[in-house]
Amino acid sequence: MGDGAPALTAEGPGPHGRSEHGCPSGPSRWAARTLGLLLAASLLSACNRPPRHTLATVTVEGETVVDNPALGLDAAAVRERLLLLLRESGRFTEPPQSAAAERGARLTLELGYTRESVRKPREGMWAETGAQLDVEIPLEDGSIHEEVVGVGEAPIQDASLEARRAALRRALDDALLQVVASADLMLRARTRTDAELAAQLKDPDARVVESALRVLAERKSPLAVDALLERLHLSDAAKVRRAMGALVEMREPRAVPALIELGRNKEPPFFKEIVFALGEIGGEEAEAWLFTVSQGHDVPAVREAASRALGDLRAQPRR
């Protein structure tokens, strides 16, 4: 080499070599620092990641998967698709071969329907699948059941059996993804405090709100009342009924005027549900309203229901 050029030896500070103290220099030192940061971030992420939910069993039931030539999948095949999505979510343990000694959630999937439909503003024919996942959660003194639902849809490319079947299976996977995500949110909600759940009632994700509200209502937390009262004004009848049921379980007196208002101009079958709800909640306002309905409603069946609810209410010890 010419004069003035540094000698490059195994010990010298080459571009990927080491300094005289044996520490990485140049890009090697940068790479070592980067690797250390990545490992630290990975460990921190693992520490912050919520624990996985323990599963005891995963089963598939219902006539829709027993005799469904359009879908072309039996219960075992549908179960495998569900297990794959549970596994890929990273949020659930693998269910054991034998659940006899395993204490964990028991998942039971049922397909409510698989169908083809035309519905505006969508163009053409679409495949639709409805899925209900029952989640049985073990408690110290038994268990409770929660249900999450998913509705999947996919466009049908042409009228062939292959295209129709492929669309139904895409719709099935869509529905299964939804119930897996909802089950995860619901089980995670059960690990949170009331204050944490109350904060989630403002979350932009409706599934997060639904899970938080369910658990708060189950705990009969006062933090759930305002959200439950708001739900009485929704157009979704199922959500309105769940809110009514939760308010009845809580014996929430603030629900009485809201339920009375909800009953205005309602058809007799739903009006009777409100009658019995108010009979369960009780209180002077509810009692006076039931008496008025029992005496003056136009429909005899409603008057009879109000009389029965009033009698049951008066027979209860005063709270």
Structure characteristics:
alpha+beta, 319 residues, four-stranded mixed beta sheet
What quaternary form is this? single chain
Tally the beta strands.
4
**What general form does the structure show?**
globular
Instruction: Please tell me how large the radius of gyration is.
Output: 30 Å
CATH superfamily of the domain at 51-191: ABC-type transport auxiliary lipoprotein component
CATH topology of the domain at 51-191: Rossmann fold
Taken in chain order, the helices and strands follow as HEHEEEHHHHHHHHH
CATH architecture of the domain at 51-191: 3-Layer(aba) Sandwich
Largest pleated sheet = 4 strands, mixed
Strand content: 15-25%
Low-confidence segments: 1-27, 41-47
Separation of the first and last Cα atoms: 101 Å
Helix content: 40-55%
Structural class comes to alpha+beta
* CATH uppermost class of the domain at 51-191: Alpha Beta
Which strands sit side by side, in order, in the main sheet?
Answer: 1-2-3-4
